[in-house]
Amino acid sequence: MHKIQVADRAFGIFLENENINKRISLISIQLNVDYEDRCPLFIGVLNGSFMFMSDLLKEVSISCEVAFIKVSSYEGTESTGAIKETFGLPQDLHNRDIIIVEDIVDTGFTLEHILAQVHAQKPASVKVCSLLLKPESLKKEIPELEYVGFEIPNEFVVGYGLDYNGLGRNLKDIYRVID
Ligand code: XMP
Ligand code: MG
């Protein structure tokens, strides 16, 4: 097995870049159909979504706008649900078609927090596109979660934008913790 070390933990290969990009192509085909002539606004959630957003939008061929927000996050491998603040949310979302782009949905607390702020501006529509979803750890119902790359088991993953204590975001493949 292809193993790597990130900080104090060992990780094994989980999703190779080639497979990630194949899945992204399929999602983008769907987005190109669903949002034709709607000029959606893609809002990426930093830092984790930067690589997914980049690869996804290279395949999105419709007219669209792009923005990024940042949500203060947790450290280590456990989601606490304690979301502090959102930075950089555009203030002109009224009547727009919004697509929130996430790296991973774990408990759903982060998205719940973001979605409340987005909906408050009365956009025309709001959908979520997440590369990864951990269905077993989801604690919130998220009807906006329309586009999901991969459903994965409840294990900590790193790479392709996702970090372990700040490290590993630059890895082109996704790895899961093995010890
Ligand atoms: P919640 O629980 O709010 O979590 O849905 C979403 C955010 O938590 C981070 N997260 C992870 N980051 N590997 C990571 O590198 C993981 O396995 C993982 N699970 C959750 C991530 O920042 C995500 O936006
Ligand atoms: Mg994140």
TrEMBL record:
One GO CC term on file: cytosol
Keywords (A to Z) from UniProt: Cytoplasm, Glycosyltransferase, Magnesium, Metal-binding, Nucleotide-binding, Purine salvage, Transferase
Cofactor(s) annotated in UniProt: Mg(2+)
Compartmental location: Cytoplasm
GO molecular function: guanine phosphoribosyltransferase activity; hypoxanthine phosphoribosyltransferase activity; magnesium ion binding; nucleotide binding
Pathway: Purine metabolism; IMP biosynthesis via salvage pathway; IMP from hypoxanthine: step 1/1
Top-rank taxon: Bacteria
GO biological processes: GMP salvage; guanine salvage; hypoxanthine metabolic process; IMP salvage; purine ribonucleoside salvage
Residue ranges of domain Phosphoribosyltransferase in the record: 15-164
Cross-referenced InterPro entries: HGPRT (IPR050408), Hxn_phspho_trans (IPR005904), PRTase-like (IPR029057), PRTase_dom (IPR000836)
Gene3D superfamilies associated with the record: 3.40.50.2020
Pfam families listed in its UniProt record: Pribosyltran
Transmembrane segments: none
Entry EC no(s): 2.4.2.8
Catalytic activity: GMP + diphosphate = guanine + 5-phospho-alpha-D-ribose 1-diphosphate; IMP + diphosphate = hypoxanthine + 5-phospho-alpha-D-ribose 1-diphosphate
NCBIfam families membership: HGPRTase
Sequence similarity: Belongs to the purine/pyrimidine phosphoribosyltransferase family.
Name of the protein described by the UniProt record: Hypoxanthine phosphoribosyltransferase
